[in-house]
Amino acid sequence: MVRVSDLDASLDFYCDGLGLSVISRRDYEQGRFTLVMLAAPADRESVITSDAPQLELTYNWDPEDYRGGRNFGHLAYRVEDIYATCEQLMEKGIVINRPPRDGRMAFIRSPDNISIELLQNGEALPIREPWRSMSNTGEW
Amino acid sequence: MVRVSDLDASLDFYCDGLGLSVISRRDYEQGRFTLVMLAAPADRESVITSDAPQLELTYNWDPEDYRGGRNFGHLAYRVEDIYATCEQLMEKGIVINRPPRDGRMAFIRSPDNISIELLQNGEALPIREPWRSMSNTGEW
């Protein structure tokens, strides 16, 4: 579970950007929070019947400070084409903090600074521009 | 990925306590860190061939401060018998911060304060003592 301070911005990031799908969404009027369960494309079908992993977003209706700590490191997802994924994220204005210079690994951050590792499924892709020359931005 | 300040204490907690298994362990002399990949019992077999979820522990050989933040919430695992799991954890001296009074849900914390939710697989178990009367301890 990760806490999000802006649910729309977070759904835009995790779904439209990263490609996850909304599995369920519940608003809790009394507790004043919303829970959204997300799943990766490969887990979408199996999540209903089995133990496929899900990412839970908690949106508390009353604002809180969601800075990060050091004990949690990052989430990680394998992707089919790490260059295509990063291109799509950049088109949405998302910074690739650690570009996939090696055709294998990239890091981005969610709107609430959750670090997310993207890993090329299987073998690394051939190294190529513009990725090869792209520098790091900030921390991840 | 979660960072751990004491690898032995963490393996004791995650493996001997929670029941996860070590899938791989690599020491990186140059970077001065150790990575340990863990998987839940139900994922142990499939983790080699498929995309079953894993928990990565990063142990940096040079000490750091691993306090938590608020953007990350918790990890969550389904268990076959939440009372048996909590009993086993208590026998190891692990505090059940939120006991499974409802036969359905409990929260504990790792040695580095990562919050972990335990969820009864399927229907909630019948409510019973000593769980019913057990109070909360600290935060989770």
Query: Can you tell me the overall shape of chain A?
Result: globular
- H/E topology pattern of chain A: EHEEEEHEE
What is the CA–CA distance across the termini of chain A? 19 Å
Task: Profile the largest sheet of chain A.
Answer: 4 strands, mixed
Q: What pair of chains forms the biggest interface?
A: A-B, 27 and 28 residues
- Supply the number of helical segments of chain A: 2
Helix share of residues of chain A? 10-25%
Structural features, described:
Two copies of one chain form a homodimer. The first copy, chain A, is of the alpha/beta class and 140 residues long. Helix content of chain A is 15%, strand content 28%. In chain A, a hairpin with a 4-residue loop joins β2 (21-28) and β3. The two termini of chain A are 19 Å apart. The mean pLDDT of chain A is 94. The A-B interface holds A 1-3, 42-43, 51, 53, 56, 58, 64-74, 76, 78, 110, 112-114, 117 and B 1-3, 40, 42-43, 51, 53, 56, 58, 64-74, 76, 78, 110, 112-114, 117.
Summarize the structure.
The structure is a homodimer of 140-residue chains. Chain A is 15% helix and 28% strand.
Summary tags:
homodimer; alpha/beta; 4-stranded mixed β-sheet; 3-stranded mixed β-sheet; 15% helix
Write the layout of secondary structure elements.
2 copies of one chain form a homodimer.
Chain A: E1 2-3, H1 7-17, E2 21-28, E3 33-39, E4 55-60, E5 75-79, H2 82-91, E6 105-109, E7 115-120
